[in-house]
Amino acid sequence: MNTTRTEAERDGKSERSLHHSLNLTVIPNEACKQAQSSFELHVVSTNKGEQTSVLNIAKQIWPWVDYIHIREKQLSLQQHFKWARHMTDSGIPVSRIVINGANPLLAGDLCCGVHWSQDMLTKAELDMNVVRKRQHIRLGVSVHSIHEARIAVDFGADYLFFGHVYASRSKPDLHPRGVEALAEVCSGVDIPVIAIGGIQASSIQAVRLAGARGAAVISSVFQHENPAHAVRLIKQAAEQ
């Protein structure tokens, strides 16, 4: 018996049951057809389970960002979808919400994109061409080298996160990969590369010059005393 396939089928049944319990509708997501900014701004949740704090800040910042990622590794996928439901109930458009770890075929009406780790990509049993025919769901993949980037592109990723570029509070023990490594990935693939890791307003121009088509931030927004102001500074830097 193929253990991997058996586990995948079991996970798929569990996820379908989850969507039924949350009353999700598996339909093409029209909200995801919005045109992306020339330089995308992604804001990623803190991975600390701070739902109230994340929701309050998300309500402040969503008009100035392209995507808000729900990435809480210690929480179940069911909890990720509940966070998304709270966001949409609070007036945050579906077009801004990305759920990390979700199956694109079952993402329902609570998000316009899903984002995967390298580990998820290597275990995937999806045909992204089929996904695109059925859903308007954007798939992002985190990569750490040009080799991983090309694998993600071949799989059908719509964009990549590359990092961490600068020293990052979320990865204090790991040496940053730097702008040169970012430039190598940007020049080696033909889909948008989003720089992540230690990104501040002051570093936006550097990552743009390296070829990045966007930036993803965590602490520079969520740990700022005025998150909306922090986001506006980043957007202004990107537009210069």
UniProtKB/TrEMBL annotation:
<keyword id="KW-0784">Thiamine biosynthesis</keyword>
<dbReference type="InterPro" id="IPR036206">
    <property type="entry name" value="ThiamineP_synth_sf"/>
</dbReference>
<dbReference type="InterPro" id="IPR013785">
    <property type="entry name" value="Aldolase_TIM"/>
</dbReference>
<dbReference type="GO" id="GO:0009228">
    <property type="term" value="P:thiamine biosynthetic process"/>
</dbReference>
<protein>
    <submittedName>
        <fullName>Thiamine phosphate synthase</fullName>
    </submittedName>
</protein>
<dbReference type="Pfam" id="PF02581">
    <property type="entry name" value="TMP-TENI"/>
</dbReference>
<comment type="pathway">
    <text>Cofactor biosynthesis; thiamine diphosphate biosynthesis.</text>
</comment>
<dbReference type="GO" id="GO:0004789">
    <property type="term" value="F:thiamine-phosphate diphosphorylase activity"/>
</dbReference>
<feature type="domain" description="Thiamine phosphate synthase/TenI">
    <location>
        <begin position="51"/>
        <end position="221"/>
    </location>
</feature>
<dbReference type="InterPro" id="IPR022998">
    <property type="entry name" value="ThiamineP_synth_TenI"/>
</dbReference>
<dbReference type="GO" id="GO:0005737">
    <property type="term" value="C:cytoplasm"/>
</dbReference>
